[in-house]
Amino acid sequence: MTGEDATSEPAGRFARSPRAGLMRTRLGAHLAGLIAAAGFALSTDDLARLVGRSHAAVTALLPTADTTELRVDGDGAGRRWWVRDEASIGRIVRALHVGPLPAGAEDDAGFRARALAPFRTALHASAASAHDDWGWENAPDFTLSAAFPRSMHARRDEHRRLIALVTDARRAQVLTARDPDAAAQQAREAAAAIAETARTPADLVALATVLVSAAGWEPAGGTVPRRLAPVFALLGDTERAVALGARVRTDVAIEQAYVARAAARAGDPAARGILDDALARLGDDAPRGALLRTAQAVAGTALHLGADGAGTAVDARGLIERAFTDLDAAPSVENLRGRQFRSSRDEEWALAARTLAVAAVALMQAGRVDAGRRTAGEARAVVDEIGDRVRRAVAEADVAARLSVRTALALSPVAEAALGSVATDAADAALACPDDISGLATVAQLLAAREPSDGDTPEPAAPDLPRARAAADRALALIERSAMIPPTGALRTTVAVTGPTAPAVRAAEAVVAAVAEARHGTALERRTRARGEATVLAEAAVVLDAAGRVEQARAAAHAALEAVGRIPAATRARWYAEVAAVLLAQADTIDDDLFAVAVAAADAERRGSDGPWDAAAPARLVAALLDSEGADHAAEAPGEAPTESASPAESEAPAESASGRPATRHPGTVEGEASGARRASVAGIRATALAALRRGEHARTLTLLADRAVHAGALRAARELAAHALRAAHVVDPVRIERATAAVAEPASSDAAPHGGAGSTGDARLDVSAVAQRWLADGYPIAALGTLAAAAPDAAARIRALIRADLDR
Length: 809
What we know:
The protein is mostly helical. 63% of the residues lie in helices and 1% in strands.
């Protein structure tokens, strides 16, 4: 198979073509055959090892630029070649043939397969050598790439080799060292290919082999991140949520209370029982923080229980009373400093106030009007305990927003009036906020009901737009009058309430001017302040762009990039991500140049992302993209979240930064080719950011993103992020283990039940295709094992053996 040397006679008619230099020698013909048979890119190293020749001998024959048959990418040792299209494969096959060949024969699939079979054998032999001789660490790159197993998917005669390849444990270890999701992703893609053509019980055995192997590669022994279990409950998988909530390292009672609230929101009748178990776990000596957080979850549960939530709301109120039984207790060790202690105490009062407000609404909708009115008054009274005036105003706005919650159950006119009166008083008190830009921006956001939804936020509030705009206008006036650079996020939050009005534009222009005129006493001060300057310039660019001040917006965006360049390199990636996130939040509407700046900043973040210190950078990008997507899958019915999912780095092809950005601007929406280019670029940024988090095993960050996604209505993204968080935390799905153990424990009794006993074997109906698709969705072959055992006992026995081996690992 190594061919003869480069001086041999030409091979086939193709050699006579002026563009057929590659085929003029047998070695060249061999190289062309390998590239055609592979169907994916082969590098210089891949080809040299396949034909047993030097790199120089290979590159001397192969083209250095695209031809009508081959595409070329890269340079030097990294150059790669692959066939241009199906017609190119046909021309190469005809050129390889010696002797007469009927017209069009090279286009026949069977003829092509036979002609290229020796070259496919060479590819497989290379993989076999890596398994037996070289070791996967020393294997050619193509044997580890996702393209190699993909080339085997459509060839049923290669399914056996495909299974051996993707279930090779040593190969999986090598891949995992490079990318923690690569091995599982290749296995899932192979499983999908097998499931697509599954017709017999033997195909189910092959599918189970791949799925069980992939599940066994996940490292175990980790701890479930807090706040991950409620995500599964919101996705409709309460069983898994309860099992995960019981396995958090600390605060199991709090986690289970949040699971109960999520289950109640999803409409699961088991919510009240889960909450009772959580309260039973809460000890008599629970610290104040634990009591307040549990009370928050209990009040949220009461809100979603509707008319049956009165008792639960009373439980929440009782937990708050317990928390503040001894107000004179000595501060904890970590809060011994007076200022820090006062800040902590203010936060506790604010949490208690918002929880009482939610409990008041729950009591009202349960018909307990007097109790609801008293509880709402208590919420206002608790706010008065907050010492800091700005914090107090924000807490008043928070209470007003939560008293304005509208649920599926309509309140009575009396309850509506009672809550509305207290909410109005709280909103008026919030407008007494001192002249603090951040405080006023937050008040405006709360009163406008634009608070980002998360696990601590109940149902959306009814907006109080007049008061929200009043607070926002004050904040914008302060930004305009002040010669100081405003806090990051203040301009963005405020303009989200008012829109790009004239005051908003003046405030944005004032921000740009303040940055331009800023004078720094030292180089250190200049580098330190560049962090805030970069973000507020990006915010100003978005405002100016929305108002039609395109040139000013472009100048501000480029100034933001310049400011990030002044930040020390060790922390620069975070601020590149911040600039990109601010701009990408409006990816569909911003000017082309601003979009290009956003992509350039995201690319710079990627190049500077190396090490656990920068987890906030990719997380900020993913969060911004989730917010911009909104409820992208709102119509998708909640269901069981799969424990395995495709790696975003593999499933979404990264775009090459700004090179494909659209040439025209489309206000309001981006359409056609421009829209596709932007979506591809944004998808690439998201995939790269997620891959960075996954490689760094940032389970906590992935959990927070999953929580954000599920509350934004992006259910598919939430499932993907939740699965990533579990794997990053090294947690084996407990429900899968329980179901697998039960499935292999007593096969005789468990198999007979669904079919009326052992005598029903002949009547069993096994829809192989449906079972295959169910297994593929679940990520583990447990469902329908009883039906399979009745229809094909030998196949079921083999699958049970695979599951037992996985459980014994």
